[in-house]
Design goal:
elongated; Alpha/beta knot; 233 residues; 7 helices; single chain; alpha/beta
Length: 233
């Protein structure tokens, strides 16, 4: 093969690579347009930040949103799960996945430490967002008012009763406080007058805490176990 043929082959290879890159950029741009339909700002998302389900469809937490009224009327097989002012998006994303697989309704009480369009939130929840139900409350009072028939059980290290000593009911609310961060002390909520029970998870005394969603998973599955894993298999 002479130099001319080598040059032509290299040029053809470069052309194919350029065309492939162009098609990839077009596909990414199209996906950005789809994300924009979900209310995302285009400037915040590049091709490497798009999060999609198994079919290539953009994932949005908006798919999981449920009104407070609908949540109060919903028939559930597990207690409701509530995160008060969560700070880490990955934890809440994992909780969305937990709630999807157990049929649990997740309540998030503002202020949140992240945007609901956060990439880490959507990645942690994988493509389970449209299989879960999430309720957003502007404050704790709104949660209490919208769920008047529910018993609030607060999970806190300050409790003396173990989480296994409670008989759970489907309309209970399992309340978890925020991860450590620059926020006001949540004890006015975790130990407030609307809390019916305070419980804790046992740990070795030399260690500080478990991950938020790990704690929530233990609590949800214990409650679901007591209720016979209804709706599961």
């Amino acid at each position: 093969m002479n130099n001319s043929e080598n040059t032509q082959e290299a040029a053809a290879k470069t052309k194919k690579q350029t065309e492939a890159q162009t098609e990839a950029h077009k596909a990414a741009a199209s996906r950005v347009e789809q994300m924009y339909e979900y209310g995302y700002r285009k400037s915040n998302y590049g091709p490497d930040e798009l999060v999609t389900d198994a079919h290539g469809n953009p994932i949005s937490v908006m798919d999981a949103m449920l009104s407070a009224d609908d949540a109060a009327r919903a028939e559930t097989h597990t207690p409701h799960l509530c995160f008060y002012s969560p700070r880490i998006p990955g934890n809440t994303g994992s909780a969305i996945r937990l709630c999807a697989v157990t049929g649990t309704i997740l309540h998030l009480v503002e202020p949140l430490g992240f945007n609901l369009h956060d990439t880490k939130l959507r990645r942690a929840g994988l493509d389970y967002h449209d299989m879960a139900h999430v309720v957003l409350h502007p404050n704790f009072e709104n949660l209490v008012e919208s769920m008047p028939n529910s018993r609030i059980i607060a999970f806190t290290a300050n409790a003396t009763k173990l989480y296994t000593e409670i008989e759970y009911k489907p309309n209970d609310i399992l309340l978890f406080g925020p991860e450590p961060g620059d926020i006001p002390d949540p004890m006015d909520v975790m130990a407030g007058p609307h809390v019916a029970e305070q419980v804790r998870l046992p740990m070795r005394p030399s260690l500080r805490s478990l991950n938020l969603t790990n704690c929530a998973s233990i609590a949800v599955y214990e409650a679901w176990r007591q209720l016979g894993f209804t709706g599961g298999k």
